[in-house]
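Listing S7. Sequence submitted for prediction.
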Amino acid sequence: MAPTCWDVLVAGGGPAGSLTAYHLAKAGLRVAVFDLGKFPRTKACGGGVQVRTQEAIPFDWRSVIRASISSAEFTCNFGRRFVRGYRDPLVHCVLRSEFDNFLMERAVEAGAKLFEGVRVLHAEQDALGARVETSAGRFSARYVIGADGANSIVSRALNARSDFFWQAAVYVELPIDCIRLERVRLDRLRVDWGTLTSGYAWVFPKGDMVNIGAGCPAQLARSLKSYLKTFLETEGLLSQPVRETLRVQGHQLPTMTPRTTVARGHVLLVGDAAGFVEPLTGEGISYACHGARLLARTLLNKFGDHTLAECYREAVRATIGHELRWARRLLSFGTSFPNLFYWAFEHSEEVWHTFCRVLRGEDTFEGLRKKILGPFAFLGAPLDFLVRRIERSRLIQPQPSAPWS
């Protein structure tokens, strides 16, 4: 019978959970991780990992990188097309089954105990600690960490669904022999912008696999499957037999807002459970990894201190939260003025290079916004107010019908 008292319980064994467990176990804490799957397990995700992530993973993980991408091909509403490149890699592409398994193995090697096939049912706390009810019984600890994804059970102890900004994505992941190779560059991302009011479609090559998907704000989610199918048809990516047997998977993408609570008392959140999804690109792995390092550092420094939750909230707000706020403002601008946004990426070397530096962790979304707005960046709050009003009106408009719908 496994012990039911630990220093830290981690719900969820994705990148946020496994890396948090790694840091804490390596420092000598008794850590248990619960995951519903059995590793290696699949996870709904595009699998694009921004290069900035490598700063937050404290060991060599090159063995699970399937491809490194330094260029992208763009279209606007399947129309005008251009290619942009950069001198260094921007995105690493991984299979989540391999990536997550690799990180979890490092956590277990560091001393964390993994409970596979265990569902977390409920989390609660009192003045002395926290507890989780699971399908394997009741477990107690000083702290419970919610790293259990977009539909986090632990997060429900701190937040309502309305405390996050929600987006959605659908995708297919296929072997390369299902793809018409003359239509795909294995060293280049493919992105379509502007077909939906907000959101984009993508192709992420991963060596002998390819991930093809589309994402958008939740208000437009009903259009995603038809958009993805139209994207596949327009690009001519697949053979007819493959296209007719596609199994499309979907997932939700939460981004923290000023209403989101990432910690209270003995319960702390990280990764998607905390809303660490960057809304402009929809990427969450890099912020999950950075969040794991930030949470572990705060917990180790403040273990048993009543200020721990407050310190973590402030640290998130000043770092991850700051970036996500600026990315959210950029998404609003791109939704409100899609042609201007697209034009800036197509024609401005400065905008493109700044965006590349953001993906590499060498610049910020605040800096990117200044480059896109140029002399109008000083307008600040009045411009944001106007953009949000336009965005709200555009997101409630019916989407154009697609040939596949």
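Caption to Listing S7: primary sequence and predicted structure tokens for the chain studied. DSSP finds eleven helices and 18 strands in the chain. The chain has three domains: 5-65+90-163+257-322, 164-253, 325-395.
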